[in-house]
Design brief:
Radius of gyration: 18 Å
Helix content: 40-55%
Structural class: mainly alpha
Number of domains: 2
Shape: globular
Number of strands: 2
Bound molecules: heme C
Amino acid sequence: MDLKKPVPTLATATLLVATALCLLAGGYSNAHNPATTPSTANGQASDPSAQQPALVQQGKLIFDKTPVYAAAYVGNKLSCNDCHLQSGTAPHVSPMIDIAGLFPSFSKRAGHVITLQNRIQECFVRSENGKPLPVDSPQMKAMVAYIDWLSRDEDKAKPYPGRGFLNLPALTGDPGRGKLIYDSQCAACHGVDGAGVPPILPPVWGKNSYNDGAGMNNPAKMARFVAYTMPQTHPGILTPQEAYDVSAYIHTKPRPKFNPAYKVY
Ligand code: HEC
Ligand code: HEC
């Protein structure tokens, strides 16, 4: 990557993002699940989400605009969609496709078996820096219906190949070098102060970001996300070392503290 190369100004970047969002609007289909609307997606009457397309749509809305539709449980300005791109359908950025059948499963972090609802609560108390969404709340039912719908073609014998993130070699990031990369390749959208312009451009540190108990608060995990998705207008231009460097720099910045009372999630 050439650090001297000019990056888009905030205005151009916002325009580009807005265009990208327009292109994405309305479509949450993917190669694995080619059907485009919940109402036509599934002929199997046994699938509850097929009978409740409105609930599935509501779940997608909460996923895309979490601080608006689950406001009481969100403590920052991040939506699920800011990290799980394209409403949780983009491969290799921890997609929601085919994960419904993987729960309940043992969680190393929690130290016990967790349900999909518990996993969603984990995201609320860590990535959303908020409170656990009650299991019987309408928002939880809607999100589970949406994730079930994204898993409707699930073949248990063959896990979805795009699950999780792409691997990178284990490297050590240099925050000093990362600052140069951040200032030239990231600050135009995420701001020199890391605050972004939410909800269009999400914050990467500070009070409106995820807390220090979140998965993204691990520089190696962030490097895997960033190497594949950022800068949003030119993903793939960073070398693995540069992705580690910029993640190490972001990791030196302040963010909310995880509330240990929520460790159970
Ligand atoms: C700041 C980024 C971020 C936000 C915001 C976020 N997540 Fe995540 N999520 C992650 C990361 C990173 C992982 C991988 C966790 C790990 O490996 O520790 C993950 C994992 C998950 C998983 C498990 C996926 C699997 O394959 O096992 C689920 C389910 C999930 N998130 C749901 C959500 C939901 C629902 C929301 C919104 C309420 C949300 N996430 C918000 C970053 C985020
Ligand atoms: C053109 C604008 C743009 C640029 C430049 C950009 N990003 Fe992003 N970034 C976004 C948007 C928009 C999202 C939300 C996900 C999406 O829609 O792609 C995002 C999401 C993220 C996230 C996860 C959500 C969060 O806020 O924590 C991280 C981390 C991140 N970017 C890091 C970077 C890094 C590091 C760089 C520089 C190498 C960078 N970005 C450059 C627009 C940008």
